[in-house]
Amino acid sequence: STSLALFYQARRKERLNAHFEPRPIELRSDEVLSGVTGLIGNTPLIRINSLSDALGVNILGKAEFLNPGGSVKDRVALRMIDDAETAGLLHPHTGSRIFEGTVGSTGISIATIARARGYDVTIIMPDDVAEEKVKALHALGADVERVRPASIVDKKQYVVSLLYILAKIPPQNCFRMLQNNAQLNLESTLRLIKPHLVQSPSSVVVSTSGNEENPEDLMNKPRGFFADQFENRSNHDAHYDGTGPEIWRQTNGSLNAFVSGAGTGGTVAGIGRFLKSMNEEVMVAISDPEGSGLYNKIKHGVMFDAKESEGTKRRHQVDTVVEGIGINRLTDNISLALPIVDDAFRITDAEAVAMSRYLVQHDGLFLGSSSACNLVACVKIAQKMDWKEGQTIVTILCDSGNRHYSKMIYSITNVARNDEYLEKAGIPIDSDLIPAMISSL
Ligand code: PMP
Predict the structure, then answer these.
(1) Angle 131-139/105-117 helices, nearest 10 degrees?
(2) pTM
(3) Which of 50, 158, 293, 412 could hold 303 in an S-S bridge, CB 3.0 to 4.6 Å?
(4) Is residue 97 within 8 Å of residue 224, measured between CB atoms?
(5) φ and ψ at 48, to 5 degrees?
(6) Closest-lying ligand 1 atom to the alpha carbon of residue 270
């Protein structure tokens, strides 16, 4: 009876794991979208009324927080997965695994799509990102490893090499590489890598002839797909083919500037390059948080100077308020953007916090920190340049404030306000900052 129980257990498991072949049932309506990925993209463009009215320009935000995974990164995750499937690197519903390093948004987007396509996901992220993102990843069933790196975005040899090792390098070489890499925490890395050393779903092919694959061969197969958003061209393409054309269509091609932060650089590269291809006159500007090197790279040709290294250290070695944008190394996607970027604005954490609160108070818009940075940069463009009434600046509203409760703390009343975090982080809280900025025009 034990063997019978095991038999039924195996049958149940089989049924649970079975994926159903698509059945061609006509929907009779174009209004019904297909599954969760049907919800990705085609986001509305909204006028930020408080800022636009005060400044006499149109500041428009692309409402990317409405994507099903909650951020602009859904587009990128979908394109990376689609392209990997087309290239034969991923196979839906066979248990292939996707690996990615992320500050959270991309991981959540990948995990969302992965659930729908039958992939497993391993996410490596810094341990100082907002807790909300980790909870979302766990809820989506991703394996999450939190590391204490100098930065996930800066030390390529740290997280990126770890992911590369996990996804691609044969196990027998892994150990040697790990041992030779002083930056990697061997213990946590081994814990992470272990399940994949034994078997990888994508590589475990149980032959129907009854002969299991040679274990030697098995060990030499890649254990999954490393999405590599920083270097993956699909990231740029998602925006060049999707977000950019949507913005062009939604503004009837009449926009004067486009503002975006850059984490991987995919957004600014893809949208910026598309808009420039339609009209060279569209100004492309980067909103860059404190401690990021892009502002200097664009203004002075170098990522950061000695004077700034202190700030850089601060931003990337302790908790940061602004998540998702800012970088100190040239990724492939950033490199694509640099030739078309006209200007950059350095945004302080205090400005980002003040803008987040201002938008809640005046527009009922509850946005994440990178969106707030973008909107501060929009105001600075209007301040800096000789803007004529009625000109249009477009930016990205990357994600919602609900990913940032533990850090940004929006409430404009004293009840739910949590200024402690900001005080501890040494960020001044000044509710007059944005009104003063606007009225100084
Ligand atoms: N905002 C948020 C919240 C993000 O997570 C990211 C991605 N890291 C960005 C903006 C920046 O986008 P990109 O990677 O395309 O530069």
Answers:
(1) 10
(2) 0.82
(3) 293
(4) yes
(5) -85, 100
(6) 15
Looking at this predicted complex, what is its ipTM? Answer: 0.96
DSSP alpha helices (H): ranges in 28-147? 49-55, 73-86, 105-117, 131-139
- Using a 6 Å CB cutoff, which residues line ligand 1? 71, 73, 103, 105, 261-267, 323-325, 368, 370, 398-399
Helix 171-180 and helix 186-198, axial crossing angle in degrees, nearest 10:
170
CA distances for 267 relative to 64, 104, 126, angstroms: 11, 16, 22
DSSP 409-428: ---SSSSS---HHHHHTT--
Q: Whose CA is nearest to atom 6 of ligand 1?
A: 324
| Cα 199 to ligand 1 centre (Å) | 33
Q: How far is the CA of 240 from the centre of ligand 1 (A)?
A: 15
Cα(21) to centroid(ligand 1), Å = 35
Tokens of 243: 């977000």
Tell me the one-letter amino acid at 124: I
How far, in Å, from the CA of 204 to the mean position of ligand 1?
Answer: 35
pLDDT tens by residue, 198-257 = 333 333 333 333 334 444 444 445 567 888 888 899 999 999 999 999 999 999 999 999
> Among the atoms of ligand 1, which is closest to the Cα of residue 153?
8
